[in-house]
Structure formats: structure tokens, C-alpha cells
Design brief:
Layout (H helix, E strand, L loop, with lengths): L9 H12 L2 E6 L2 E6 L2 H4 L2 E22 L4 E21 L1
Antiparallel strand pairs: 1-2, 3-4
Length: about 90
Amino acid sequence: MPASIGGICPARFFARAYREHGPVFRIKLFNKTHTVLAGADALSGTSVTGKIVGTTKGPKINGFTYKAKKHQSRRYGHRQKYTLVEIVSITKS
């Protein structure tokens, strides 16, 4: 499940704004207006610098599979590992 702010997924918010307004649009965040660049053409020549903060784990997923009337079943689990990255700077040349 992606992170949400106020019940709105940021990825979906920006995808919808990109579809409706094109590659350059303005948003109001923390009482300041920011210009957002989106799309391959608007972001060409942009570089992002970040540093790894740590690691975390996603939710545990338990699975169960079986074959009917064959007395064959299997339980399995999975937990995705994520890397936390802090974005230090974004520069557009």
C-alpha cells in the first residue's frame, strides 16, 4: 500500500495532475506555491542526489495453496524489504 497524505496517494495525485494539466503545473503545499515538472521532456537533464537512510520491511503476506482431493498443500510467506532513501538535492541543468 503506498504512503498517503490526508488519504490521497501522492503518486495518483501527480499522475492525475499530469494528465489534466500537462508536464508543468503548480501545486500549493504548506501554504507555498510550487512549480512541478513531470514527463520525460520536462525532466531531461535533471539529476537527483540521495543518501540511504536505512531499511524497513513491508507487510507480511501469508499464502496457502492446495490441490483438491490430492492431500497436497503448502503454506508460504513473504515480506518485501525496502530501502529508505533521503533525497538531498534535485538539480535541473
